[in-house]
Design a protein that fits this description.
single chain; alpha/beta; Gyrase A, domain 2; Four Helix Bundle (Hemerythrin (Met), subunit A); Rossmann fold; 3 domains; seven-stranded mixed β-sheet; about 45% helix; about 20% strand; magnesium; nucleotide-binding
């Protein structure tokens, strides 16, 4: 730890403003000395003392409950003091001012969690889960963040690292002892272990991606030909007249964004210009922007007019677009205007592609779409142990996966054990960034600076 990390820090641990209770948290080597100064006696460890809080002259600042936790048996791993007083901002400021006068300094954002990480009380993924738990916008997101805080995600990553370590030991032993009668690199074991590791990584990438949707929300693009009802659908989902709706084709010429919540789960809805070949330069710009949004989407809602589009095969509908949708992009086909076409609203699965029949104008089937989007974000499965993940976690997993794939090539095509060993080392380093085992100091500073002051 640096000299700054050996300071005793203090901060308001409850939200600023007025409330029934306000909590000042202190952590560091002088916490017990400060406790004696505030209370006038040495507190018992892990015992709730009801007492007046005294300033430097012996005057009473407030009265409340004091809790002292000697390190390492505390959140930060250091000596910790909590003063729980009345939640008025003036009272809290006076207690903080008295703490700094007595030698403490004000904590940086996230510094308590940072110290917990540096003292091995939790790893980096768990520390980030604290912030995610506080910022949760739904019950499902809170459950998933709690799973990560309790170590669910870290255990998955540790399991992957253990697989990598065992594989590295085997590969590097084969390199170090080339004169053995057995060809360790060519006996099939390494190839099989690489494939098993890749499958584990693929599962984890998929689960982590679902975790990022719970945290950051899903990017959903409404796409389709002109006058299919895209803007009407945006208005129906957002509950307000966000987009202009007319019978004139090409009314929407730019990208419209609306952030909504479905049962507390964040969803970013993007309405786009109708997809067609156009000679109008302004409309062409809007169409190009639409395709750019499609490239970045988590899911595309491919909207068709059920009156003018009798074909119900999703594959045919996709090939009817001016350009091909990106490979592997999840697509839900929406057959709109069923109130006019006579189709029954509802949901079907067409060879793996969800198809929903609805009317954006009348509202029929829109609730079915909402339930479908909730399922896509993990609403139903979050209670079954899904963990929260961040974009940097997903990036690290994908880099690790890329290095394992590259290692497979080094082995199968060139028999290059040294290059395979290096790829495996880099994959392990990438996974280590998730839990903080291999994380640069600059990244640590960026992560913890986004936390609350008292966390």
């Amino acid at each position: 730890m640096s000299g700054a990390d050996r300071d005793t820090i203090a901060a308001l641990a409850t939200p600023p403003g007025r409330g029934g209770v306000g909590v000042i948290r202190l952590s560091g080597p002088q916490a017990l000395v400060l406790a004696q100064a505030f209370l006038g006696f040495e507190p018992r460890p892990r015992y709730a003392h009801y007492a007046p809080f005294l300033d430097e002259t012996g005057d009473v600042l407030d009265e409340g409950i004091a809790l002292y936790f000697p390190g390492p048996h505390s959140f930060t791993g250091e000596d910790v003091l909590e003063l729980q007083g009345h939640g008025g901002p003036v009272l809290m400021d006076r207690i903080l001012a008295s703490a700094t006068t007595r030698g403490a300094r004000l904590a940086r954002p996230g510094e308590f969690s940072e110290r917990a990480f540096l003292n091995d009380k939790l790893d980096l993924a768990q520390a980030e889960a604290i912030a995610d738990l506080i910022e949760s916008s739904s019950e499902q997101a809170a459950r998933s963040a709690l799973q990560s805080l309790q170590g669910a995600f870290s255990r998955v990553v540790s399991g992957l690292i253990e697989e990598l370590v065992q594989l590295r030991v085997y590969v590097e032993a084969a390199i170090d002892f080339p004169d053995e009668d057995v060809d360790f690199l060519g006996d099939g074991k390494v190839a099989a272990d690489l494939q098993a590791l890749l499958e584990s990584l693929d599962r984890t990438v998929q689960e982590a991606h679902q975790g990022t949707l719970l945290r950051d929300g899903m990017q959903v693009v409404i796409a389709g030909k002109p006058n299919a009802g895209k803007s009407s659908l945006l208005n129906a989902l957002s509950g307000q007249d966000t987009a202009i709706v007319t019978e004139i084709e090409g009314t929407t010429r730019d990208v419209l964004r609306e952030q909504i919540q479905i049962d507390g789960m964040p969803l970013h809805i993007i309405d786009t210009a109708g997809l067609r070949d156009s000679a109008d330069e302004v409309e062409r710009i809007g169409i190009d922007r639409a395709w750019a949004e499609i490239e970045k989407a988590d899911r595309v809602l491919l909207l068709v007019d059920s009156i003018t589009t009798p074909d119900t095969d999703p594959a045919t509908l996709r090939t009817g677009l001016p350009r091909q949708l990106p490979e592997g992009l999840p697509v839900t086909v929406l057959r709109n205007k069923v109130d006019l076409s006579g189709e029954a609203p509802g949901f079907t699965d067409h060879d793996g592609t969800p198809v929903i029949r609805l009317s954006a104008q009348s509202g029929e089937g829109v609730d079915t779409l909402r339930e479908h989007l909730k399922d896509c974000m993990g609403y139903q499965t979050a209670a079954e142990g899904r963990y929260m993940a961040r974009r940097r976690h997903l990036d690290a997993l994908e880099r690790a996966r890329s290095m394992v794939v590259q290692g497979q090539t080094q082995l199968s095509e060139f028999g290059a054990g040294e290059l395979l060993a290096e790829d495996l080392r880099q994959a392990q380093d990438a996974l280590g960034e998730i839990t903080g085992a291999m994380t640069p100091d600059e990244l640590l500073g960026e992560i913890f600076s986004s936390f609350c002051i008292g966390k």
